[in-house]
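Below sits the subject:
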Amino acid sequence: MHRRLFLAASLSLALAPMNAQAANFVDYTPGVIEAALAEGKTVFVDYSATWCGTCKRQERVINALRAADPSYDAAMTFVKVDWDTYKADDVTVFRGIPRRSTLIVLRGEDELGRVVAGTSEAQIKALMDAGLSAPQG
């Protein structure tokens, strides 16, 4: 019994930094992306579903990249759009988002890049780097 308690406690401690990092996503509500863009911010948008394995893998990669390089958090606002709630909403339809597990980076009126169902660190890092290199207003 003690071994199970020890393993559970160890696992929760190991995952604590990842969970804290995931909390740095702003949950989408109508207008939140437009408001950030209007303030001159670069916005990283994650269209995901809680049940999606690909989305979970993307989240782990994003969190690891953010933990390794704090400049991502300084340069971008990270917004998570719940696919099940907003798949037929303007936030999804207007940008032609084909499916959950889509990641995009926006700046002003421009989409700087997109990853659809990609989980490789190189692919996601390239997208995040596009947000870093966006001219700040």
